[in-house]
Amino acid sequence: MATTSNGATRVLYSLLYSIFIIKYFSLFFLYFIYKLDLVERKQYWQELYQEAQEINKQCNGNELTFDNIAKMVKLNSFVKESLRFTSPIVALPHKCISKSYYTFANGYQVPSGRTVSLNFRDTNTNVEELQGQNPTEFYAYRHLERNSPATKLECNFLTFGDGKHECPGRALAISY
Q1: 35-69 pLDDT per residue, tens
Q2: Sequence ranges of the binding site
Q3: Can you tell me which residues bind heme (predicted)?
Q4: Where are the domains of the chain?
């Protein structure tokens, strides 16, 4: 009995460790992506630096809070564009749980038990109706024009999921 309990404890620790590693890796990956874009896109440095200086003056040199960081709308738009531009090809897998199959409005059917994923690359870079003009080009301030912060859940930006599957840590991930 003690062995079973010990085994169950090890499984629980293993699961918790896996969840921690996955979540930490996700944050690190997002951080790495937009920092790399910032290094590569020097034309935005001065404007983003000026915005940060203005917010810093408003804080009187005190530590920045999440609310202060949220005021950096240009930086937020840059981060969102970076995540949009470098998103995975497919993501958000869903398993069909219908008894036999699920039929989409266009007639396409997904059999029960089959897993389907969304094509992020197409949604994020090929559809002008969703992304605006020139969706295949990086434009750091694309999301300023729409008043669309990186944490806002929208059909044109699914990096953090949507609905009941939305990422609860998206604000932390953006301000990381």
Answers
A1: 788 888 999 999 999 999 998 888 877 787 878 88
A2: 167
A3: 167
A4: 2-175
